RNA sequence: CUCUCCGUAGCUCAGCUGGCAGAGCAAAUGACUCUUAAUCAUUGGGUCGAUGGUUCGAAUCCAUCCGGGGAGACCA
C-alpha cells in the first residue's frame, strides 16, 4: 500500500466499507439501460410521460453536494447528463446510510453507476434525471483528472501529450473532442469501404508476416518463427500480394492494412500505420486518378457534408477536378529549373545549388524526389496530382506510354504531404526483373531502402497479369486532414512510445535473487523485481542509463537506506 | 542522430536574482434540500525526472543521463 497516493488509499478503503455494507463494488450482473444521455437532451419536453421512468448508466464526472440533496453528472457513451439525488426520497425511513454513507462518502468521481428515475428541468433550467434508485456498477480505484468548464472556458484541461497518449483511456473519458476524432476516423474508413464495395471490389486479407518484404522503399522490422526457424519480416506494403491476386483472376481487390516501417518517428510517421491499397484490372493510372478524386470528395462530403475542410490555417477544397502537374512541370514551376533532360551528375549539382544534401547512394530517382520534396511538396496545399515520375524511383510502375524515361505514376499531395500513391502497374516480367536488379545495385551502393528481388512475384507475373491500376492511400494522413489534427499521434489510439516503467507491488520473497549471478546485491534485486524485472535476460536488454535513472528514483521514493548506485556498477551487471 | 523547450501534489500550474516546497481543482472531516468551475470552514497530501558536482545551504547554478513536446536529418 506504500506506493499508493492518499486518494487511492481512500478509494480502496471505500471498497472494503462497501463490502461490509453488503454492496459489491464490482458486481457481476449487467445493468438494463433503456436511455442514453443524448436521447434525453434531444427529445425531452416537459410534461411528457416518455421519460418518466428511465434507466441509464455511466461514469460520475462531477458532484455538488448540498447536505440532504446533491447534483452529479454522469457520462455515458453519448455524453453527459445531470442527476439529482435527494436523501429523504432515497432513504424514506430512519436509516439514511444509502445516501449519507454510500452516495456521499463511498462514491467518487470516476465510479460507474446505474440510475433509474424521471426527467425534469431544474430551477436553473437544466435537464436532469431525478434519481429514485441507484446501483454501483464499478468502483474506480484511481482518481480521474477533473476538467471543468464554464462559458466555453476549460479549466485544468488534461493536455499533456505524454499522459494523453500513454493513458488514452483517461484522455477519452475527459476529452470528448478526442473521442470525436476517432469516431470520424471510423466513419471515414466505413465510407471508403462502402465506396469500394459499391463498385464491386473484393476486400481481402494478405500476410503481415512475410519471408521477403517488398512493394515500397522502406526498411522493415524483422521477427523470427520458431518452428520454421526462419527470419520473417513485417510487411511494409501489400502491393506484391495483391497483384498476385490480380494474376489469380480477381479483377478488383483492396485491403485496409496495417503496415510497418522501421524508420524515424515524427508527427507524420508512426512505426505502424494504416494504408488502403486497391488494384483494379484493365484500368490505368488516368482512370485511377479520377477514382481518387471522386472517392476523396465523397469522403469529405460523408464526414462534413461539404467539400471544403478547414485544416490549420487553410481551407482545403476537395471538389473535383483537382489540379494536375507532371513531376517535371511542378519542379519547373516552383524552382524555375528544367530537369527533364539532366544526367545524374547534373542533378547532383542542381540539388547542391538548392541547398539539398546529397549522398553517394542516391540515384536519379532519389535526387529528383529530394528536389521535389524540398521545393514543391510543402507548397501544395490544395489537393494536387503529380504525375509521370522518373523510372528510377518507381520500380513497380509501368513505363510511360509516350514519354521516355518516365513511368505512369501519380501521387496526390494535400496540405503539403502525400496522401496517396498510384500507378499503372508494371506487368512485363522481364522489365520487372531488370528493375529489381537495378534496385539490388542501389542496395549495393548503400541504399538501405532499396527493394529486394522477389522470385515468386516474378513467377506470378510470368503467368500474365492484366493491365492493372494500383493505389495506396494513407488512412492516418487522410484522417489527420479530415479531422484537422497536426500530428499522427492524435489519430492513432495508441501511438508508439518508449516503454514506461510501471512499478509493481512485490510480495516479500526477498530470499530469491534471480540476478545474483550478474553480481546484483540482494538489496537491489528486490527493487528490480518492483520495476517488473524477473529474469537476467530481461535486464540485459535494458538501457543501463534508464535503469540507473529508475533505480535512483525508487531509492529516493522508498527512502532506502542504501547508497546510490554508480552507472559503472549497472554496466558491470549487464555485461557480467 | 542534431538543435530547442519542458519535467514540481491525483490534474493544471506558480516558485528558478540559491535561504523552511506553494496555489486552484481533486481528496479527507464538518455545514448546507434546485446546484452547476456550487458555496463556507478545517485538514492531509511531494522520487521538485535521476545521478554527480559547485556551495555553509540546490526545486533553483553546472555536467551527464532518463522521459516527453517542437523543429530538423533520415524517411512517405
SSE topology sketch:
Blueprint: H1 6-20, H2 37-43, E1 54-66, E2 69-76, E3 79-86, H3 87-90, H4 97-106, E4 112-121, E5 127-138, E6 148-150, E7 153-155, H5 161-166, H6 168-174, H7 176-198, E8 202-203, E9 209-210, E10 222-225, E11 230-234, H8 239-247, E12 252-260, E13 272-281, H9 285-304, E14 308-311, E15 314-317, E16 323-326, H10 327-335, H11 344-353, H12 364-375, E17 384-390, E18 406-414, E19 417-424, H13 429-444, H14 455-462, E20 468-474, H15 475-482, H16 522-530, H17 536-540, H18 544-557, H19 567-575
Parallel strand pairs: 3-5, 8-12, 16-17
Antiparallel strand pairs: 1-2, 1-4, 2-3, 4-5, 6-7, 9-11, 10-11, 12-13, 13-20, 14-15, 17-18, 18-19, 19-20
Helix pairs in contact: 6-7, 7-9, 7-15, 11-12, 13-14, 18-19
This protein binds one RNA strand of 76 nucleotides through helix 1, strand 1, strand 2, strand 3 and strand 6.
Amino acid at each position: 500500500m506504500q506506493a499508493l497516493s492518499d486518494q487511492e488509499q481512500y478509494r480502496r478503503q471505500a471498497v472494503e466499507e462497501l463490502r461490509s455494507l453488503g454492496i459489491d463494488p464490482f458486481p457481476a450482473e449487467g445493468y438494463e439501460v433503456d436511455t442514453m444521455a443524448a436521447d434525453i437532451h434531444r427529445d425531452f419536453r416537459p410534461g411528457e410521460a416518455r421519460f418518466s421512468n428511465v434507466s441509464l448508466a455511466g461514469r460520475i464526472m462531477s458532484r455538488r453536494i448540498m447536505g440532504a440533496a446533491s447534483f452529479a453528472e454522469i457520462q455515458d457513451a453519448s455524453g453527459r447528463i445531470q442527476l439529482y439525488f435527494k436523501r429523504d426520497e432515497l432513504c424514506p425511513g430512519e436509516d439514511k446510510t444509502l445516501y449519507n454513507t454510500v452516495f456521499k462518502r463511498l462514491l467518487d468521481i470516476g465510479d460507474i453507476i446505474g440510475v433509474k428515475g424521471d426527467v425534469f428541468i431544474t430551477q436553473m433550467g437544466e435537464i436532469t434525471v431525478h434519481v429514485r434508485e441507484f446501483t454501483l456498477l464499478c468502483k474506480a480505484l484511481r482518481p480521474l483528472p477533473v476538467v471543468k468548464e464554464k462559458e466555453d472556458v476549460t479549466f485544468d484541461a488534461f493536455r499533456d501529450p505524454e499522459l494523453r497518449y500513454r493513458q488514452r483511456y483517461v484522455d477519452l473519458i475527459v476529452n470528448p473532442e478526442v473521442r470525436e476524432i476517432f469516431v470520424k476516423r471510423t466513419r471515414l474508413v466505413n465510407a471508403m469501404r462502402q465506396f469500394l464495395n459499391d463498385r464491386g471490389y473484393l476486400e481481402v486479407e494478405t500476410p503481415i508476416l512475410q519471408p521477403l518484404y517488398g512493394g515500397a522503399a522502406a526498411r522493415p522490422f524483422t521477427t523470427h518463427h520458431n518452428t520454421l526457424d526462419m527470419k520473417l519480416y513485417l510487411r511494409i506494403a501489400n502491393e506484391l500480394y495483391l497483384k498476385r491476386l490480380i494474376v489469380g483472376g480477381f479483377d478488383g481487390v483492396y485491403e485496409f492494412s496495417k503496415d510497418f516501417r522501421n524508420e524515424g518517428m515524427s508527427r507524420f510517421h508512426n512505426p505502424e500505420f494504416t494504408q488502403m491499397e486497391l488494384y483494379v484490372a484493365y484500368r490505368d493510372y488516368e482512370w485511377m486518378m479520377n477514382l481518387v478524386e471522386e472517392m476523396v470528395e465523397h469522403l469529405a462530403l460523408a464526414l462534413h457534408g461539404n467539400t471544403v475542410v478547414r485544416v490549420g490555417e487553410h481551407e482545403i477544397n476537395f471538389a473535383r477536378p483537382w489540379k494536375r502537374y507532371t513531376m517535371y512541370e511542378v519542379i519547373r514551376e516552383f524552382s524555375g529549373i528544367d530537369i527533364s533532360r539532366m544526367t545524374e551528375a547534373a542533378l547532383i549539382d542542381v540539388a547542391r545549388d538548392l541547398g539539398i544534401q546529397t549522398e553517394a547512394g542516391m540515384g536519379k530517382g532519389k535526387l529528383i524526389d529530394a528536389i521535389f520534396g524540398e521545393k514543391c511538396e510543402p507548397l501544395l496545399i490544395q489537393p494536387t496530382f503529380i504525375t509521370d515520375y522518373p523510372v528510377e524511383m518507381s520500380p513497380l510502375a509501368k513505363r510511360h506510354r509516350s514519354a521516355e524515361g518516365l513511368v505512369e505514376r501519380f501521387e496526390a499531395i494535400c496540405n503539403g504531404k502525400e496522401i496517396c500513391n498510384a500507378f499503372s502497374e508494371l506487368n512485363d516480367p522481364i522489365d520487372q526483373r531488370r528493375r529489381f536488379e537495378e534496385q539490388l545495385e542501389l542496395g549495393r551502393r548503400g541504399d538501405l531502402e532499396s527493394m529486394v528481388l522477389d522470385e515468386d512475384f516474378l513467377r506470378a507475373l510470368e503467368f500474365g497479369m492484366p493491365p492493372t491500376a494500383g493505389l495506396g492511400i494513407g488512412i492516418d494522413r487522410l484522417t489527420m486532414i479530415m479531422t484537422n489534427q497536426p500530428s499522427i499521434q492524435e489519430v492513432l489510439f495508441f501511438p508508439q512510445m518508449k516503454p514506461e516503467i510501471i512499478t509493481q507491488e512485490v510480495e516479500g520473497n526477498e530470499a530469491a535473487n534471480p540476478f545474483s549471478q550478474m553480481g546484483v546485491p540482494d538489496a537491489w534485486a528486490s527493487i528490480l523485481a518492483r520495476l517488473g524485472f524477473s529474469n537476467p535476460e530481461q535486464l540485459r536488454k535494458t538501457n543501463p542509463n534508464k535503469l540507473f535513472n529508475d533505480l535512483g528514483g525508487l531509492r529516493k521514493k522508498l527512502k532506502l537506506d542504501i547508497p546510490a548506485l554508480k552507472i559503472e556498477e549497472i554496466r558491470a551487471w549487464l555485461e557480467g
